[in-house]
Design goal:
alpha+beta, OmpA family protein, signal, cell outer membrane, OMP_bac, globular
Length: 223
C-alpha cells in the first residue's frame, strides 16, 4: 500500500508540473500595462514624414507637373492658431483642427501622465525624448506640428478639458526647453475626454495620451 501511495504521489507531481509548464508565460505579467510602449525616433520620423513626391513622368506631353497647392482653408486655419495659447482655442477651432489632422501624417503616442496630473510619467519620458529628437531631425525640422492632449473619462467635461490642455502644454514646454523647438511650430490643443482611444475602457491609462500631427512643412511650402 505504501509503495502504491508513493507511486500515486509521483504521478500527481508529474501532472502538476506539466500543467504549470503548459500555462502561457504572459500570465506572469498580467499586472503589466501591455499597451504601453516607448517608441523610437525612427518610428516617429517614419510616421510623421510627408509623403514622398511622385516622380516626373517622361515621354508624355501633358504639361508641367506641379505639386498640388495647399488647401487655402487649411492654411488659413493653421495661420490663425499658430502662436495661440491652448486655452484660447474655441471648441469650433478644436474640431476644425481635428478634421484637418485626420488626413495628415500623424502618430498616436502613448505618452501617459500621472493620474489627475499633467506630469509626464517616468516610464513615458523615453518616448517624449524620442519625439524631441525626431522633430529636430532633418526630415521633420521646419514643420508645424499639432500636439493634442487627451484624458480618460473620469471627471467632468470642464475639468478634463482643462487637464488635457495642461498635458499638451506640458509636452510643448518640454520640447521647447529641452530641444529648442520653436514654440510657434507647436500648436497645442486639448480634447478632454471627447476622443477616447479605447472607448470600451474609458478609464484605461491609454486614454491619457498625446497625439502628434505634422500639419505643414514650412520649408517645402516656402519654395
Amino acid at each position: 500500500m505504501r509503495s502504491a501511495a508513493k507511486g500515486l504521489t509521483a504521478i500527481l507531481s508529474i501532472i502538476t508540473v506539466g500543467v504549470a509548464l503548459s500555462l502561457p508565460t504572459s500570465a506572469a505579467y498580467a499586472g503589466d500595462d501591455g499597451n504601453s510602449k516607448n517608441v523610437t525616433e525612427d518610428e516617429i520620423v517614419r510616421a510623421l514624414a510627408p509623403a514622398p513626391k511622385k516622380p516626373l513622368t517622361r515621354g508624355l506631353s501633358i504639361g508641367p507637373q506641379t505639386e498640388s497647392a495647399p488647401n487655402a482653408a487649411e492654411t488659413k486655419l493653421l495661420q490663425s492658431v499658430r502662436g495661440r495659447s491652448t486655452r484660447s482655442l474655441s471648441s469650433t477651432e478644436r474640431e476644425e483642427i481635428a478634421s484637418v489632422a485626420k488626413d495628415k501624417p500623424n502618430i498616436d503616442l502613448e505618452i501617459t501622465f500621472d493620474y489627475n496630473s499633467a506630469n509626464i510619467s517616468a516610464k513615458s519620458l523615453p518616448s517624449v525624448q524620442a519625439l524631441g529628437r525626431a522633430l529636430t531631425s532633418p526630415d521633420l525640422k521646419g514643420s508645424t506640428f499639432v500636439v493634442a492632449g487627451h484624458t480618460d473619462a473620469a471627471g467632468g467635461e470642464a475639468y478634463n478639458q482643462d487637464l488635457s490642455e495642461r498635458r499638451a502644454d506640458s509636452i510643448k514646454r518640454y520640447l521647447v526647453e529641452k530641444y529648442s523647438i520653436s514654440a510657434t511650430d507647436l500648436v497645442t490643443v486639448g480634447y478632454g475626454k471627447s476622443k477616447l482611444k479605447d472607448p470600451n475602457q474609458p478609464l484605461a491609462e491609454v486614454n491619457r495620451r498625446v497625439q502628434v500631427v505634422n500639419m505643414e512643412n514650412k520649408t517645402t511650402a516656402s519654395k
